[in-house]
Amino acid sequence: MENLGILALSVFTSLFAIVNPVVNIPIFLDLTSAADSVVKKRVAKTAVITAFVILLVFILIGKPLFDFLGITIPAFRITGGILLFYVGFELLASRKSSIQTNDSGQVQGFDESIAVSPLAIPMLAGPGTIVAAMNYTTNQSLIGMGIIVLMLVLVMLITYYAFVFSERIFKFLGSNIIMVMGKLMGLIVAIMGANMVIEGIKSAGF
């Protein structure tokens, strides 16, 4: 039971740090600046549901797909760890991750399709989030898989409400606190990436 609690805490911390619901609030506000509250809520709902479905698919069939392609778990962990470290480094350097955002970092005008891209893909369900989610599915029991999915649901719910109440949260916290939180999340993500590389090297037998 204790191991399941540790699993839940680890999965939640990892996904929350990478998805960064609070830190992504300024981006959401910028992308939906031309929308009213009803449309913003609809965009937030579409983005979160889309991201959830994408991540759920990788959680459920990601490992069998990798087995079919001949991709080993050690190789996945080492590559994924390097990727996560890079995402964390960019967050620490106060840059929008080129892996988690689109090329321009913003869109011209308003279009509800932003709910799918860049909000859902790759901001919420980017490579970093997929790697983090799949990392916990290795040799996992049915109960463990259920906990992973449950933690994903929890993170996505928090993200949805963070977007819905984005204006209030931004006014309450202010840009400085959000920036500090972004750096802390960046440090956590970078450490997670380094740990994944270490585990990948160990599991490869080096």
Describe the structure.
By secondary structure, this protein is mainly α. The protein contains 8 helices and no strands. Helix 2 crosses helix 8, helix 3 packs across helix 5 and helix 4 packs across helix 6.
* Radius of gyration based on Cα positions: 17 Å
Shape assignment: globular
Report, as a whole number of angstroms, the end-to-end distance.
32 Å
Average pLDDT: 83
Strand content: under 5%
In N-to-C order, the SSE pattern is HHHHHHHH
Contiguous runs where pLDDT drops below 50 for at least 5 residues: 97-109
DSSP summary, beta strand count: 0
Q: Total number of helical segments?
A: 8
Described by strand count, sense and barrel closure, the largest sheet is: none
Helix content: over 70%
Key features of this structure:
206 residues; mainly alpha; 8 helices; 0% strand; globular
Concise synopsis of the structure shown:
The chain has 206 residues and is mostly helical. The protein contains 8 helices and no strands.
Secondary structure elements and pairings:
Blueprint: H1 2-19, H2 25-31, H3 37-69, H4 73-92, H5 116-124, H6 127-135, H7 142-164, H8 166-203
Helix pairs in contact: 1-6, 1-7, 2-8, 3-5, 3-6, 3-7, 4-6, 4-8
